[in-house]
Protein backbone atom coordinates (compact mmCIF):
# COMPACT_ATOMS: atom_id res chain seq x y z
CA UNK A 1 0.00 0.00 0.00
CA UNK A 2 1.47 3.42 -0.84
CA UNK A 3 3.13 5.19 2.01
CA UNK A 4 3.00 8.60 3.29
CA UNK A 5 6.35 9.18 2.76
CA UNK A 6 -1.80 13.12 5.30
CA UNK A 7 -8.82 19.06 4.69
CA UNK A 8 -11.65 20.51 5.74
CA UNK A 9 -11.21 23.59 7.82
CA UNK A 10 -11.79 23.40 11.53
CA UNK A 11 -12.54 26.43 13.68
CA UNK A 12 -9.21 27.54 15.17
CA UNK A 13 -8.89 28.33 18.84
CA UNK A 14 -6.31 30.52 20.48
CA UNK A 15 -5.50 27.95 23.16
CA UNK A 16 -5.03 24.28 22.35
CA UNK A 17 -7.49 21.93 23.93
CA UNK A 18 -4.92 19.28 24.78
CA UNK A 19 -5.70 15.95 26.31
CA UNK A 20 -2.75 14.40 28.06
CA UNK A 21 -1.68 11.26 26.25
CA UNK A 22 -2.15 7.98 27.98
CA UNK A 23 0.89 6.80 29.94
CA UNK A 24 3.41 5.30 27.58
CA UNK A 25 3.84 1.55 27.77
CA UNK A 26 7.34 0.17 27.82
CA UNK A 27 8.68 0.04 24.27
CA UNK A 28 7.73 -3.02 22.32
CA UNK A 29 5.20 -4.34 24.81
CA UNK A 30 1.74 -3.80 26.14
CA UNK A 31 0.28 -4.43 29.52
CA UNK A 32 -0.41 -8.06 30.20
CA UNK A 33 -3.95 -7.08 30.99
CA UNK A 34 -4.47 -5.57 27.55
CA UNK A 35 -6.41 -7.80 25.17
CA UNK A 36 -4.07 -9.23 22.62
CA UNK A 37 -0.89 -7.87 24.21
CA UNK A 38 2.06 -7.62 21.85
CA UNK A 39 5.19 -9.73 22.26
CA UNK A 40 8.00 -8.04 24.16
CA UNK A 41 11.11 -6.74 22.43
CA UNK A 42 14.49 -8.26 23.18
CA UNK A 43 15.81 -6.15 26.11
CA UNK A 44 19.38 -6.60 24.85
CA UNK A 45 18.66 -5.00 21.48
CA UNK A 46 18.94 -1.27 20.84
CA UNK A 47 17.80 1.20 18.20
CA UNK A 48 16.48 -0.25 14.97
CA UNK A 49 17.51 -3.75 16.10
CA UNK A 50 15.11 -3.44 19.03
CA UNK A 51 12.30 -2.53 16.64
CA UNK A 52 12.99 -5.50 14.38
CA UNK A 53 13.17 -7.76 17.45
CA UNK A 54 9.38 -7.35 17.84
CA UNK A 55 7.86 -10.22 15.85
CA UNK A 56 4.60 -8.44 15.06
CA UNK A 57 6.47 -5.43 13.68
CA UNK A 58 8.47 -7.72 11.41
CA UNK A 59 5.20 -8.95 9.91
CA UNK A 60 3.99 -5.38 9.34
CA UNK A 61 7.39 -4.51 7.86
CA UNK A 62 7.30 -7.45 5.42
CA UNK A 63 3.72 -6.67 4.35
CA UNK A 64 4.66 -3.02 3.84
CA UNK A 65 7.66 -3.93 1.68
CA UNK A 66 5.68 -6.36 -0.46
CA UNK A 67 2.78 -4.07 -1.21
CA UNK A 68 5.00 -1.02 -1.69
CA UNK A 69 7.17 -2.72 -4.29
CA UNK A 70 4.06 -3.98 -6.06
CA UNK A 71 2.41 -0.56 -6.10
CA UNK A 72 5.53 1.10 -7.47
CA UNK A 73 5.79 -1.46 -10.27
CA UNK A 74 2.08 -1.10 -11.09
CA UNK A 75 2.28 2.71 -11.23
CA UNK A 76 4.94 2.51 -13.90
CA UNK A 77 3.20 -0.30 -15.79
CA UNK A 78 -0.21 1.41 -15.69
CA UNK A 79 1.27 4.64 -17.01
CA UNK A 80 2.81 2.71 -19.92
CA UNK A 81 -0.45 0.82 -20.51
CA UNK A 82 -2.53 4.01 -20.71
CA UNK A 83 -0.02 5.54 -23.12
CA UNK A 84 -0.08 2.39 -25.28
CA UNK A 85 -3.89 2.47 -25.40
CA UNK A 86 -4.31 6.20 -26.06
CA UNK A 87 -1.02 7.60 -27.36
CA UNK A 88 -1.73 10.61 -25.12
CA UNK A 89 1.11 12.01 -22.97
CA UNK A 90 -1.49 13.98 -20.98
CA UNK A 91 -3.48 10.88 -19.99
CA UNK A 92 -0.27 9.02 -19.23
CA UNK A 93 0.87 11.82 -16.88
CA UNK A 94 -2.62 12.04 -15.39
CA UNK A 95 -2.45 8.34 -14.53
CA UNK A 96 0.62 9.00 -12.41
CA UNK A 97 -0.85 12.14 -10.82
CA UNK A 98 -3.99 10.24 -9.80
CA UNK A 99 -1.81 8.37 -7.33
CA UNK A 100 -1.63 11.58 -5.26
CA UNK A 101 -4.79 13.63 -5.64
CA UNK A 102 -7.47 11.17 -4.34
CA UNK A 103 -5.59 10.93 -1.03
CA UNK A 104 -7.38 14.02 0.24
CA UNK A 105 -10.76 12.39 -0.46
CA UNK A 106 -9.97 9.10 1.24
CA UNK A 107 -8.08 10.74 4.09
CA UNK A 108 -10.89 13.19 4.85
CA UNK A 109 -14.10 11.28 4.16
CA UNK A 110 -13.08 7.80 5.33
CA UNK A 111 -10.65 8.62 8.17
CA UNK A 112 -13.18 7.49 10.79
CA UNK A 113 -12.69 3.89 9.64
CA UNK A 114 -9.24 3.86 11.29
CA UNK A 115 -10.70 4.35 14.79
CA UNK A 116 -14.16 2.81 14.34
CA UNK A 117 -13.10 -0.73 13.45
CA UNK A 118 -10.33 -3.11 14.65
CA UNK A 119 -7.04 -2.28 12.94
CA UNK A 120 -6.37 -5.77 11.60
CA UNK A 121 -9.77 -5.92 9.95
CA UNK A 122 -9.26 -2.51 8.32
CA UNK A 123 -5.78 -3.37 7.03
CA UNK A 124 -6.77 -6.73 5.55
CA UNK A 125 -9.93 -5.28 3.98
CA UNK A 126 -7.97 -2.42 2.38
CA UNK A 127 -5.50 -4.89 0.87
CA UNK A 128 -8.33 -7.03 -0.51
CA UNK A 129 -10.15 -4.03 -1.97
CA UNK A 130 -6.97 -2.88 -3.70
CA UNK A 131 -6.22 -6.40 -4.97
CA UNK A 132 -9.72 -6.51 -6.48
CA UNK A 133 -9.31 -3.10 -8.16
CA UNK A 134 -5.97 -4.06 -9.65
CA UNK A 135 -7.32 -7.44 -10.80
CA UNK A 136 -9.99 -5.61 -12.81
CA UNK A 137 -7.28 -3.41 -14.35
CA UNK A 138 -5.60 -6.54 -15.68
CA UNK A 139 -8.69 -7.65 -17.64
CA UNK A 140 -8.11 -7.05 -21.40
CA UNK A 141 -11.46 -5.35 -21.96
CA UNK A 142 -11.11 -2.72 -19.22
CA UNK A 143 -11.44 0.72 -20.88
CA UNK A 144 -9.11 3.63 -20.14
CA UNK A 145 -11.78 5.50 -18.16
CA UNK A 146 -12.23 2.49 -15.89
CA UNK A 147 -8.45 2.17 -15.46
CA UNK A 148 -8.26 5.76 -14.25
CA UNK A 149 -11.28 5.29 -11.95
CA UNK A 150 -9.74 2.17 -10.43
CA UNK A 151 -6.45 4.03 -9.97
CA UNK A 152 -8.39 6.67 -8.03
CA UNK A 153 -10.06 4.01 -5.89
CA UNK A 154 -6.74 2.47 -4.89
CA UNK A 155 -5.35 5.92 -4.06
CA UNK A 156 -8.45 6.79 -1.99
CA UNK A 157 -8.07 3.61 0.09
CA UNK A 158 -4.33 4.15 0.62
CA UNK A 159 -4.49 6.87 3.34
CA UNK A 160 -6.95 4.79 5.40
CA UNK A 161 -4.56 1.83 5.23
CA UNK A 162 -1.47 3.90 6.02
CA UNK A 163 -3.14 5.86 8.82
CA UNK A 164 -4.52 2.70 10.43
CA UNK A 165 -1.15 0.96 10.21
CA UNK A 166 0.69 3.97 11.67
CA UNK A 167 -1.74 4.18 14.59
CA UNK A 168 -1.42 0.41 15.09
CA UNK A 169 2.34 0.84 15.51
CA UNK A 170 1.66 2.51 18.86
CA UNK A 171 -0.09 -0.71 19.96
CA UNK A 172 2.72 -2.90 18.66
CA UNK A 173 5.71 -0.81 19.76
CA UNK A 174 4.28 1.52 22.42
CA UNK A 175 4.15 5.27 21.85
CA UNK A 176 7.73 5.98 22.90
CA UNK A 177 11.08 5.71 21.15
CA UNK A 178 10.44 2.36 19.48
CA UNK A 179 7.37 3.81 17.76
CA UNK A 180 9.48 6.66 16.40
CA UNK A 181 12.17 4.30 15.13
CA UNK A 182 9.60 1.90 13.68
CA UNK A 183 7.97 4.72 11.75
CA UNK A 184 11.40 5.88 10.62
CA UNK A 185 12.26 2.40 9.37
CA UNK A 186 9.05 2.17 7.31
CA UNK A 187 9.74 5.62 5.86
CA UNK A 188 13.29 4.69 4.82
CA UNK A 189 12.01 1.50 3.23
CA UNK A 190 9.47 3.57 1.29
CA UNK A 191 12.21 5.81 -0.07
CA UNK A 192 14.37 2.81 -1.02
CA UNK A 193 11.49 0.80 -2.48
CA UNK A 194 10.61 3.64 -4.84
CA UNK A 195 14.09 3.51 -6.35
CA UNK A 196 14.17 -0.30 -6.48
CA UNK A 197 10.54 -0.58 -7.61
CA UNK A 198 10.92 1.71 -10.61
CA UNK A 199 14.05 -0.19 -11.61
CA UNK A 200 12.31 -3.55 -11.18
CA UNK A 201 9.28 -2.25 -13.08
CA UNK A 202 11.47 -1.20 -15.98
CA UNK A 203 13.06 -4.66 -16.12
CA UNK A 204 9.68 -6.41 -15.85
CA UNK A 205 8.35 -4.41 -18.76
CA UNK A 206 11.15 -5.79 -20.94
CA UNK A 207 9.81 -9.34 -20.46
CA UNK A 208 6.12 -8.80 -19.63
CA UNK A 209 3.31 -6.76 -21.10
CA UNK A 210 2.07 -3.82 -18.99
CA UNK A 211 -0.95 -5.88 -17.89
CA UNK A 212 1.37 -8.74 -16.96
CA UNK A 213 3.48 -6.43 -14.81
CA UNK A 214 0.34 -5.07 -13.13
CA UNK A 215 -0.62 -8.65 -12.21
CA UNK A 216 2.37 -8.67 -9.86
CA UNK A 217 0.60 -6.07 -7.74
CA UNK A 218 -2.45 -8.32 -7.27
CA UNK A 219 -0.16 -10.96 -5.78
CA UNK A 220 1.64 -8.50 -3.50
CA UNK A 221 -1.64 -7.14 -2.12
CA UNK A 222 -2.90 -10.67 -1.45
CA UNK A 223 0.37 -11.67 0.23
CA UNK A 224 0.23 -8.53 2.37
CA UNK A 225 -3.36 -9.36 3.42
CA UNK A 226 -2.38 -12.92 4.41
CA UNK A 227 0.62 -11.73 6.42
CA UNK A 228 -1.41 -9.13 8.30
CA UNK A 229 -4.30 -11.55 8.95
CA UNK A 230 -2.10 -14.34 10.29
CA UNK A 231 0.77 -12.38 11.81
CA UNK A 232 -0.86 -9.51 13.73
CA UNK A 233 -3.04 -9.54 16.84
CA UNK A 234 -6.77 -8.85 16.72
CA UNK A 235 -7.10 -5.74 18.89
CA UNK A 236 -10.39 -3.94 19.54
CA UNK A 237 -11.31 -0.68 17.85
CA UNK A 238 -9.93 2.51 19.39
CA UNK A 239 -13.44 3.72 20.13
CA UNK A 240 -13.93 0.61 22.25
CA UNK A 241 -16.44 -1.07 19.94
CA UNK A 242 -17.81 -0.94 16.42
CA UNK A 243 -20.00 2.14 16.62
CA UNK A 244 -23.01 3.05 14.54
CA UNK A 245 -23.65 6.41 12.94
CA UNK A 246 -22.64 8.24 9.79
CA UNK A 247 -19.00 7.52 8.92
CA UNK A 248 -18.69 10.78 6.98
CA UNK A 249 -19.81 12.86 9.96
CA UNK A 250 -17.42 11.01 12.26
CA UNK A 251 -14.52 11.49 9.85
CA UNK A 252 -15.19 15.20 9.37
CA UNK A 253 -15.68 15.72 13.11
CA UNK A 254 -12.31 14.10 13.76
CA UNK A 255 -10.62 16.27 11.14
CA UNK A 256 -12.27 19.35 12.61
CA UNK A 257 -11.13 18.46 16.13
CA UNK A 258 -7.56 17.87 14.97
CA UNK A 259 -7.30 20.99 12.82
CA UNK A 260 -9.05 23.04 15.47
CA UNK A 261 -6.34 22.24 18.00
CA UNK A 262 -3.63 24.86 17.57
CA UNK A 263 -0.77 22.55 18.59
CA UNK A 264 -1.81 19.65 16.35
CA UNK A 265 -2.55 21.98 13.43
CA UNK A 266 0.92 23.50 13.66
CA UNK A 267 2.58 20.07 13.71
CA UNK A 268 0.56 18.90 10.71
CA UNK A 269 1.57 21.99 8.75
CA UNK A 270 5.21 21.42 9.69
CA UNK A 271 4.93 18.01 8.00
CA UNK A 272 3.08 19.37 4.97
CA UNK A 273 4.53 22.77 4.07
CA UNK A 274 8.19 21.74 3.51
CA UNK A 275 6.95 18.73 1.52
CA UNK A 276 5.00 21.05 -0.79
CA UNK A 277 8.13 22.99 -1.77
CA UNK A 278 10.79 20.27 -1.68
CA UNK A 279 9.27 18.32 -4.61
CA UNK A 280 9.97 21.11 -7.12
CA UNK A 281 13.45 19.90 -8.24
CA UNK A 282 12.22 16.33 -8.74
CA UNK A 283 9.15 17.48 -10.66
CA UNK A 284 11.35 19.60 -12.92
CA UNK A 285 14.37 17.28 -13.15
CA UNK A 286 13.84 16.38 -16.82
CA UNK A 287 13.53 19.97 -18.12
CA UNK A 288 16.43 21.06 -15.91
CA UNK A 289 18.69 18.36 -17.34
CA UNK A 290 17.75 19.51 -20.83
CA UNK A 291 18.39 23.15 -19.91
CA UNK A 292 21.95 22.46 -18.72
CA UNK A 293 22.69 20.12 -21.62
CA UNK A 294 23.25 17.00 -19.50
CA UNK A 295 22.34 13.42 -20.44
CA UNK A 296 20.05 10.66 -19.15
CA UNK A 297 22.59 9.64 -16.50
CA UNK A 298 22.32 13.11 -14.96
CA UNK A 299 18.53 12.74 -14.83
CA UNK A 300 18.88 9.48 -12.92
CA UNK A 301 21.28 11.09 -10.44
CA UNK A 302 19.00 14.06 -9.84
CA UNK A 303 15.99 11.80 -9.28
CA UNK A 304 17.87 9.65 -6.74
CA UNK A 305 19.87 12.33 -4.91
CA UNK A 306 17.20 13.59 -2.53
CA UNK A 307 16.17 10.07 -1.51
CA UNK A 308 19.82 9.21 -0.80
CA UNK A 309 20.18 12.27 1.43
CA UNK A 310 16.93 11.49 3.21
CA UNK A 311 17.73 7.83 3.87
CA UNK A 312 21.31 8.49 4.99
CA UNK A 313 20.38 11.27 7.38
CA UNK A 314 17.36 9.50 8.85
CA UNK A 315 19.46 6.38 9.44
CA UNK A 316 22.10 8.48 11.22
CA UNK A 317 19.58 10.38 13.34
CA UNK A 318 17.74 7.21 14.31
CA UNK A 319 20.96 5.35 15.15
CA UNK A 320 23.34 7.94 16.62
CA UNK A 321 20.97 10.35 18.38
CA UNK A 322 18.76 9.74 21.38
CA UNK A 323 15.19 11.01 21.84
CA UNK A 324 16.24 14.30 23.44
CA UNK A 325 18.77 15.12 20.73
CA UNK A 326 16.21 14.30 18.01
CA UNK A 327 13.75 16.61 19.70
CA UNK A 328 16.28 19.45 19.89
CA UNK A 329 17.05 19.39 16.16
CA UNK A 330 13.43 19.41 14.95
CA UNK A 331 12.96 23.17 14.60
CA UNK A 332 16.49 24.09 13.39
CA UNK A 333 16.54 21.28 10.80
CA UNK A 334 13.05 22.17 9.56
CA UNK A 335 13.99 25.86 9.27
CA UNK A 336 17.15 25.15 7.22
CA UNK A 337 16.00 22.13 5.20
CA UNK A 338 14.93 23.98 2.03
CA UNK A 339 17.85 26.42 1.83
CA UNK A 340 20.04 24.13 -0.36
CA UNK A 341 17.52 24.60 -3.19
CA UNK A 342 18.56 28.26 -3.39
CA UNK A 343 21.78 27.02 -5.05
CA UNK A 344 19.69 26.47 -8.19
CA UNK A 345 19.60 30.26 -8.63
CA UNK A 346 23.15 29.93 -10.02
CA UNK A 347 22.08 27.28 -12.56
CA UNK A 348 24.51 24.65 -11.23
CA UNK A 349 25.87 21.76 -13.21
CA UNK A 350 25.08 18.14 -12.43
CA UNK A 351 27.55 17.73 -9.55
CA UNK A 352 26.47 20.82 -7.61
CA UNK A 353 22.78 20.16 -8.31
CA UNK A 354 23.12 16.63 -6.95
CA UNK A 355 24.90 17.98 -3.87
CA UNK A 356 22.11 20.52 -3.30
CA UNK A 357 19.48 17.78 -3.54
CA UNK A 358 21.34 15.46 -1.17
CA UNK A 359 21.47 18.30 1.36
CA UNK A 360 17.78 19.06 0.83
CA UNK A 361 17.02 15.39 1.45
CA UNK A 362 19.12 15.55 4.61
CA UNK A 363 16.76 18.26 5.84
CA UNK A 364 14.33 15.44 6.64
CA UNK A 365 16.32 14.95 9.85
CA UNK A 366 13.57 16.85 11.66
CA UNK A 367 10.85 14.33 10.87
CA UNK A 368 11.81 11.67 13.44
CA UNK A 369 11.52 14.10 16.33
CA UNK A 370 8.36 15.59 14.84
CA UNK A 371 6.79 12.12 14.75
CA UNK A 372 7.25 11.89 18.52
CA UNK A 373 5.75 15.34 19.13
CA UNK A 374 2.76 14.46 16.98
CA UNK A 375 1.92 11.15 18.65
CA UNK A 376 2.23 12.81 22.07
CA UNK A 377 -0.10 15.66 21.11
CA UNK A 378 -2.90 13.56 19.59
CA UNK A 379 -5.49 12.04 21.98
CA UNK A 380 -5.63 8.25 21.88
CA UNK A 381 -9.20 8.08 20.56
CA UNK A 382 -8.28 10.28 17.56
CA UNK A 383 -4.98 8.62 16.75
CA UNK A 384 -6.17 6.62 13.74
CA UNK A 385 -7.91 9.62 12.18
CA UNK A 386 -4.88 11.82 12.91
CA UNK A 387 -2.47 9.46 11.14
CA UNK A 388 -4.86 9.11 8.20
CA UNK A 389 -5.21 12.90 7.89
CA UNK A 390 -1.43 13.30 8.12
CA UNK A 391 -0.85 10.79 5.33
CA UNK A 392 -3.57 12.17 3.06
CA UNK A 393 -2.35 15.74 3.46
CA UNK A 394 1.27 14.79 2.89
CA UNK A 395 0.59 13.00 -0.37
CA UNK A 396 -1.84 15.67 -1.56
CA UNK A 397 0.53 18.59 -0.98
CA UNK A 398 3.29 16.74 -2.83
CA UNK A 399 1.00 16.28 -5.82
CA UNK A 400 -0.02 19.94 -5.68
CA UNK A 401 3.61 20.99 -5.28
CA UNK A 402 4.61 19.08 -8.41
CA UNK A 403 1.73 20.59 -10.35
CA UNK A 404 2.54 24.10 -9.08
CA UNK A 405 6.20 23.77 -9.99
CA UNK A 406 5.28 22.59 -13.47
CA UNK A 407 2.89 25.49 -13.94
CA UNK A 408 5.47 28.04 -12.78
CA UNK A 409 8.03 26.54 -15.18
CA UNK A 410 5.72 27.45 -18.07
CA UNK A 411 6.46 31.12 -17.36
CA UNK A 412 9.91 31.18 -15.70
CA UNK A 413 13.21 29.32 -16.21
CA UNK A 414 13.36 26.01 -14.35
CA UNK A 415 16.33 26.96 -12.19
CA UNK A 416 14.55 30.09 -10.99
CA UNK A 417 11.44 28.11 -10.08
CA UNK A 418 13.45 25.65 -7.96
CA UNK A 419 15.39 28.46 -6.27
CA UNK A 420 12.17 30.37 -5.57
CA UNK A 421 10.73 27.20 -4.01
CA UNK A 422 13.68 27.17 -1.63
CA UNK A 423 13.28 30.84 -0.70
CA UNK A 424 9.49 30.93 -0.34
CA UNK A 425 9.44 27.54 1.36
CA UNK A 426 12.04 28.64 3.89
CA UNK A 427 10.06 31.77 4.75
CA UNK A 428 6.84 29.78 5.22
CA UNK A 429 8.63 27.15 7.30
CA UNK A 430 10.20 29.79 9.54
CA UNK A 431 6.74 31.15 10.28
CA UNK A 432 5.58 27.65 11.17
CA UNK A 433 8.63 27.02 13.34
CA UNK A 434 7.78 30.12 15.37
CA UNK A 435 4.18 28.95 15.74
CA UNK A 436 5.17 25.42 16.80
CA UNK A 437 7.65 26.83 19.32
CA UNK A 438 4.89 28.96 20.89
CA UNK A 439 2.44 26.06 21.07
CA UNK A 440 5.11 23.79 22.51
CA UNK A 441 5.50 26.04 25.53
CA UNK A 442 1.72 26.11 26.07
CA UNK A 443 1.45 22.36 25.51
CA UNK A 444 4.07 21.67 28.17
CA UNK A 445 2.29 24.00 30.59
CA UNK A 446 -1.01 22.21 29.92
CA UNK A 447 0.52 18.80 30.61
CA UNK A 448 2.25 19.95 33.79
CA UNK A 449 -0.92 21.67 34.98
Automatic annotation (TrEMBL):
Keywords: Cell membrane, Membrane, Transmembrane, Transmembrane helix. InterPro entries: MFS, MFS_trans_sf. GO terms for molecular function: transmembrane transporter activity. The keyword Repeat does not apply. GO terms for cellular component: plasma membrane. Residues 1-43 are annotated as: Disordered. The chain crosses the membrane at residues 59-83, 89-110, 122-139, 145-164, 185-207, 213-231, 267-289, 295-317, 329-346, 352-374, 386-408, 414-434. The keyword Thylakoid does not apply. Pfam families: MFS_1. It is found in: Cell membrane. Coiled coil: none annotated. It is a multi-pass membrane protein. This is Major facilitator superfamily MFS_1. It comes from Streptomyces pratensis (strain ATCC 33331 / IAF-45CD). The lineage of its organism: Bacteria, Bacillati, Actinomycetota, Actinomycetes, Kitasatosporales.
